Amino acid sequence: MANARALLVHPEEGSDRIETALGAAGFDVTRTDTAASAVAKATTGEYDCVVSEYALAGDDGVALATAIEESDAGVPVVMFTATDEEGVPEAAFENGVDRFLQKNGSASIDRLVSDVSTVCSGVSASETRQDVSDHEPTASEVTRAVEDAPIGISISDPDLPDYPLVYVNDAWEEHTGYPVEEALGRNPRFLQGPGTDPETVDEIAEAIGNEEEVTVEIRNYRRDGTPFWNELTVAPVYDEDGDLAHYVGFQNDISDRKEAERLAEQRAEKLATERRSLDRVLGRVNGLLSDISRILVENRDSGVISERVCEVIAGEPGYAGGWIGEVSSATGRLEIRAASGVSVEPGASYDVAETPAEVQEAIETEELHSGSIDDAADGPLEPKSAGGRRLLVVPLTYGDRQYGLLGIYGNGADVLARRERRVCESVGKMIANGLHSIETTEILTTDRVVELVVGIRDETAALARIADAVGGEVVHLGTTRLEDDECELYFRADGEGLDLDELASLPLVESMRTVSETNDGVSFAVTVTDSPPLTQLAAHGGVVTEATATGDEATLTIEAPPEHDVRSILDVFRDEYEGVELRSRVERESRDRTVAEFAAAVDERLTDRQRDALKTAELNGYFEWPRPVDGSEIADRMGITRQTFHQHLRAAERKLVEAYVDPRSDG
Question: PAC domain location, by residue (predicted)?
Fold first, then answer.
């Protein structure tokens, strides 16, 4: 290969044939005996290939290949050896040897020449080489190629003081913005600026001082002052006598790549920061959820639950403390039931208009709201006065029932961020669900109740419209909840010749079916698309024990715990209808506590279809003897097959018996 230089590392004996073969192939061959000498020569950058025997004086070819690889000289190594020691080929390839050949006569010499040619040129030995001797570029063509090259090329003269530029090509001018007349005669350091790394500058200077090639990424500045990243390679160029003639520089603008790397690093750091933040949030909220779940299971007193929840919040790292309060229906003020960790006293009462904006917004919208010390004014419950940096207000809502507000104060800048607010919203629902469960249990098990009789004189009320369509008084027998907001209402109407056809035409009625008919009256079920307010009372602490209606008005008898706020129950109806009045309020012993408990236990076990089958069977006298109807007739009324009816009924009967025999059974 013309002009290629090969370094042969081989004892003198046997080296002549190798030198002759490589020389005939066009290689300029230099031989040395020792690995130490070979490393010194191979790292100068003067050689295109190293050909080495394995057995060398005082060393071996694998150690030589390792040293060359560690020096980053980038010189390929071909090992041509007579050794047959086990493991040598593997060790050679693991330590930087590109080709490994066993000596085996003239055929192996020919293979050596082919492999050395391949590693030096990067061209496969099997690829056909063309004769290009008549197509060598002229000096002017080489000059034009350099001038038009897409990368910046500059030449400095080391014979002149300070190594000034004596040539720059068009791409160099375009990259830097300096015209040739301003660049020539100056050391290229004028491209440096305030953002240039001094260590990189020292690295370039050291390489030039040692007449070594160097490649760096350096921050340079264009003529208009804008910075750019320059991938700069500086290499010495020698004349025919081997003396230093020039330094050539190759400049490649890599600003886009560096910007992409910067953005990638920023993104990676952002993701790492988010992950650390998420880990902190998960650690905080996991402990919070676990502790609050335990509090709700272990306690049946709403006051104790509120106190314990606030204590848990105050004990969590990142939280300063918290409070739980409720807007009084009597005074309209925010009453604090419990507090811990902050300068808010249990029993304190605040005018809602004086509380932080996030408290007022949470009360008005029944949605979570937050604020920080940066945008807060002085006043009660503000983060600054309470001892925190951020305030998150979480409504404690179960269905339409409001159990108050939970205020959480964070004492860190990254506390109560978006993800954490979502979890706190779930915590609020969990607390409200627990308080509702306690309240419902109190309603069913209390020894005393308040009996309310409520009248609704509004013809648009659902019960009144149904009674008007029937043409007489209706008695509400019960309700079955369906999917979404739908429900099925059961009624009885007394009298002969009642016509239920008009019911189907009511806008609020989706479907109607007759459950049972006798000479004295009819029982029927109505599916409505929007549940009437009476179905919402459980979420407000009330239970409907009796309800009747005519076309003009509806009358409901409601039971609630003595300490419950009667106004909130009345507001359920006043929000929907006109003419709502409290006709009587009587506190008495609970007559139906045991029955209510049993009914609630059974109701929790039954599915909608099982409940429907049981109620329809009872209303049609299926459990009387002799039976006035059979299973087929009831199945027809329900719109199902006889087998399906009996399947649902048997399951309901089994759960009914289990609730009676073993009240602790899960059914």
Answer: 214-266
Instruction: Work out the pLDDT band at 446, boundaries 50, 70, 90.
Output: low
Question: Whole-angstrom Cα distance, residue 227 to residue 305?
Answer: 63
Token pair for residue 174?
């375009």
Residues in the chain: 667
Could you tell me which residues come within 8 angstroms of residue 72 by beta carbon, excluding any fewer than 6 positions away?
A: none
Q: Classify 538 as helix, strand or coil.
A: helix
Q: Which of 465, 535, 540, 473 is nearest to 503 (CA)?
A: 465
For 475, the token pair is 């008695």
Beta bridge partners of 555: 455, 548
CA dist list (Å): 293 to 283, 289, 402, 434: 16, 6, 20, 9
Instruction: Count Cα atoms within 13 angstroms, Cβ side, for 643.
Output: 0
- What are the phi and psi torsion angles at 159 (to 5°)? -80, -15
Residue 157 confidence class, pLDDT cut points 50, 70, 90? very high
Q: Which residues pair with 491 in a beta bridge?
A: 476, 524
Number of H helices, E strands in the chain: 20, 26
All residues at 6 or more sequence positions from 76 whose CB lies less than 8 Å from its CB, including other chains: 48, 49, 50, 98, 99, 119, 120
Phi-psi category of 471—alpha, beta or left, where left has phi over 0 and alpha has psi -120 to 50? left
Q: Which tokens is 463 given?
A: 């019960």
Of all helices (H) and strands (E), which one includes residue 489? strand 487-494
Comparing C-alpha atoms, which of 326, 327, 291 is closest to residue 309? 291
Report the C-alpha gap between 57 and 78 in whole angstroms: 18
> Phi-psi category of 167—alpha, beta or left, where left has phi over 0 and alpha has psi -120 to 50?
beta
Strand pairing class (28-32; 5-9): parallel
User: What percentage of the chain reaches a pLDDT higher than 90?
Assistant: 19
What was the pLDDT predicted at 124? 43
Give the amino acid at 537: L
Classified as helix, coil or strand, 529 is: coil
Say which DSSP state 359 is in. H
396 by DSSP, 3-state: which? Answer: strand
Q: Where are the alpha helices (DSSP H) in 446-495?
A: 462-470
**Which pLDDT belongs to residue 319?**
83
When pLDDT is averaged across residues 54-68 and rounded to a whole number, the result is: 85
| Packed helices 15-24 and 105-121: angle between N→C axes, nearest 10 degrees | 50
Q: Whole-prediction pTM value? A: 0.39
Classify strands 214-221 and 227-238 as parallel, antiparallel or unpaired. antiparallel
**Structure tokens belonging to residue 82:** 């007579």
What are 517's two structure tokens? 């008919």
Q: Where do we find the tokens 């020539």?
A: 184
pLDDT band for position 662 (50/70/90)? Answer: low
Cα–Cα nearest to 34, from 68, 67, 9: 9
- Report the relative pairing of strands 244-253 and 319-327 from DSSP bridges: unpaired
The amino acid present at 325, given as its one-letter code, is G
Rounded-to-integer distance, Cα 111 and Cα 541, Å: 97
Under 8 Å between Cβ of 442 and 560 = no
The pLDDT-based confidence of 1 (bands split at 50, 70, 90) is very low
Q: What sign has the CA pseudo-torsion 45, 46, 49, 51?
A: negative
What is the tens place of the pLDDT at every residue in 286-300? 667 778 888 887 888
39 closest CA partner among 50, 54, 23: 50
**Residue 593: its pLDDT value, please?**
46
User: In one letter, which amino acid is 542?
Assistant: G
How do residues 164-176 score in pLDDT, each as one tens digit?
999 999 989 998 9
Structural domains in the chain, CATH included, are: 5-121 (3.40.50.2300), 146-257 (3.30.450.20), 299-444 (3.30.450.40), 448-589 (no CATH), 595-661 (1.10.10)
Question: What's the rounded Cα separation, in Å, for the pair 236 and 163?
Answer: 12
pLDDT of 155 reads: 93
